[in-house]
Amino acid sequence: MVLFSRRLINTLLLECHDNIYSGHLSEDRTMERIKTCAWWPSWRKDVIVYCDSCDRCQKANKATGKRFGLMIHIQEPSTPWEVVHMDWVTALPPGGDKGYSSCLVIVDRYSKTPIFLPCHKDDTAMDTALLN
């Protein structure tokens, strides 16, 4: 079937790429489906443009955001407490006699020993420095 109507071309692209039974095929597979049933002068270019502009395919197939940096080897510490990791656990239900709602977690990289320090979500840097 030879197509020249833009409306019919768009309908065919929709059916061969977006249809629930098509499953958002790649450009090559969409071309394979179209070439068995229709032709128009710019059909290959139209398929590429259509697939590249498919919102669902862009979200599912393309990496978004900033690329990760190169992986490097991190030197392991040779003694305990030489390197520590710290993170906050927040939005906990209030607990203890002072109603703590957060926890500062400190982990020694060498021994994997954790320390859990209860605190409040609105503690300042000075409050955190004075925890013990």
From TrEMBL:
UniProt organism field: Austropuccinia psidii MF-1
Gene3D superfamilies attached to this UniProt entry: 1.10.340.70, Ribonuclease H-like superfamily/Ribonuclease H
Family annotation (InterPro entries): Integrase_H2C2, Retrovirus_Pol_polyprotein, RNaseH-like_sf, RNaseH_sf
UniProt GO molecular function: nucleic acid binding
Name recorded for this polypeptide: Integrase zinc-binding domain-containing protein
Domain Integrase zinc-binding positions: 7-62
Source domain of life: Eukaryota
